[in-house]
Amino acid sequence: MGREQNPSDFHNHFQDMNLTFHVMRLAILWRAQLDRALRPEGMTLAAMRPMAYLMLRTAPMNQKDLAACMGLDSSALVRILDSLEADGLLFRQSDPQDRRSKFIVLTTAGRKKCQQFHHIAAQVEAELTSFIKTGQKTEVASVLATMEARLSPHCVLPSDPS
């Protein structure tokens, strides 16, 4: 049998990728926690992600830009958008500049669902970060937003005003 890994072994051998490991692991755990919180409301993170991006943007987005912002292949996003459209949460609107392109627009029901998602996500965030001081939370959020903007300059979302 192999010996059990000591958590500090990772830090000793891979100090140059310590942040990478923690960010990747935290993303997995956070998403799982959020998905569990959404399920009782009949919601999934996969369905809510595109709606949240649309809610955060002030300008209309087409499917290609939305897929790029989400880091998804356009064809994978189509299935999600089709389902959301069938549920009456969004619709596709022709782009007057390019008839082949369609803007993705939230319906009133879609905006209400986004508000519900926001409430649940805020609760999950509060639970997961309850041990962190407010100033530290603000600092971490600022650093992460800066990193995100540098990695994805074509899809900058509005910053949290707090």
UniProtKB/TrEMBL annotation:
Signal sequence coordinates: none
InterPro entries: HTH_MarR-typ, MarR/SlyA-like, Tscrpt_reg_MarR-type_CS, WH-like_DNA-bd_sf, WH_DNA-bd_sf
Keywords: DNA-binding, Transcription, Transcription regulation
Organism of this sequence: Gluconobacter morbifer G707
Protein name (record): Transcriptional regulator
UniProt KW DNA-binding keyword: yes
GO molecular function, one term: DNA binding
GO annotation, biological process: response to stress
Matches recorded under SUPFAM superfamilies: Winged helix' DNA-binding domain
Protein's UniProt keywords contain tRNA processing: no
PROSITE patterns: HTH_MARR_1 (PS01117), HTH_MARR_2 (PS50995)
Source superkingdom: Bacteria
Limits of the HTH marR-type domain: 16-149
Pfam families membership: MarR_2
